[in-house]
Amino acid sequence: MFDCPFTFDNPVILIEEGRDKIINAIILIARLIPGSSMRRLQQAIRVEAASTHAGKRHDGRMGLAWSLLMLHSGLPTEQVRILWLEDIDWEGKRVCLEQAKILKDRLVCLSQATLQALRAYLEVRGPVEALPEQAFSTPTSP
Fold this sequence. Notes:
Shape: globular
Radius of gyration: 15 Å
Number of strands: 3
Distance between the termini: 21 Å
């Protein structure tokens, strides 16, 4: 189980803890914290996504895209983690999850905010030809 290093009154400390803590905390708190704390966390992630520091900008944009996929589209972290770029229908504003849940394919709608966050993340993720086709793969991912 993830050890939560913050209080629900101050979730912003996560930004200082690094990418893995941000993702794990989003998983944990998406269901547990009040809306006002989630909005503060989202704002802190947005600030990091706009950073001039390349590493912070990368992590912030990834955290924002990841969290919006979970919060706006209801995707569990396992499905976000294995999301393939080819599964995203940019024009149809949806994603096709193959054999999701009870081994049936399903389509999930994507909000405009989620699409914008995904595009922003893909801009800083790295060249497509140098990385795997999974949307959230990075050079350090297994």
